[in-house]
Amino acid sequence: MRFRWGGLWLALLLAAAPAAGQARFSLPVELTDGLAVSGSPPHPFTASLRLHPTVALDRRGAFQAALTGAAVFTNPEVAFLGGGRLTARVAQFQYSILPLASIHLAAEGLAGTRERSRVGGGVILDVGGGLVQLTLRAARDVRQDVTFAEGGLGLDLWLLFGPKGEPDPFD
Predict the structure, then answer these.
(1) Checking phi first, is residue 3 left (phi over 0); if not, alpha (psi -120 to 50) or beta?
(2) Neighbour count for residue 14 (Cβ, 10 Å)
(3) What is the CA angle 92-128-97, rounded to 5?
(4) pLDDT of the residue at 94
(5) pLDDT tens per residue, range 139-152
(6) Quick one: average pLDDT of 98-118?
(7) How many CB atoms lie within 10 A of CB 118?
(8) Which of 1-10, 18-27, 106-115 ranks highest by mean pLDDT?
């Protein structure tokens, strides 16, 4: 029997979901670029497009859970992965009451097509109240014996295109 990482992350997200009125929603989309290192043959290039529908697990947004979907290109193949991500804010910088930037630590587990199954972690820098995300991530494909190092740039689509002047959908 194979272990399914996506099912584990979904179960964790549902179990940790806060009561209505406590959650905050965001919809980051992220484009990453990096390198993949394996024994042989080397895969020198990897890129991905990721979508992270995210809900905050506390009022302050210090802890977040996300379901992640990704289209991943690892030269010469394309794979589709899904799973989850948990983040914890470790620092926040603000001016008066306006948040300028925050730093999050993330843990991620993804599984998908082409026998891909990644487990990893990273550091996320949110700028402009979470509008822009800069990510540094390291992950290990536990089935393919490949290690990945990636940098990413993301935008929160909910802040850009979500309802304006209306309450958060979870408030």
Answers:
(1) beta
(2) 9
(3) 55
(4) 84
(5) 999 988 889 999 99
(6) 91
(7) 25
(8) 106-115
Amino acid letter at 20? A
Which residues are CB-contacts of 163 (< 8 A; sequence separation ≥ 6)?
none
HSE-up of residue 80 (Cα within 13 Å, Cβ side): 1
Compute the distance between CA of residue 117 and CA of residue 111 in angstroms, rounded to an integer.
4
pLDDT at 9 over 70: no
d(CA 56, CA 86): 10
The two structure tokens encoding residue 66: 């996300």
Q: What is the 3-state secondary structure (H, E, C) of 10-72?
A: HHHHHHHCCCCCCCCEECEEEEEEEEEEECCCCEEEEEEEEECCEEECCCCCCEEEEEEEEEE
Can you tell me the distance from the alpha carbon of 156 to that of 170, in angstroms, rounded to the nearest whole number?
Answer: 17
Which pLDDT value is given to residue 162? 81
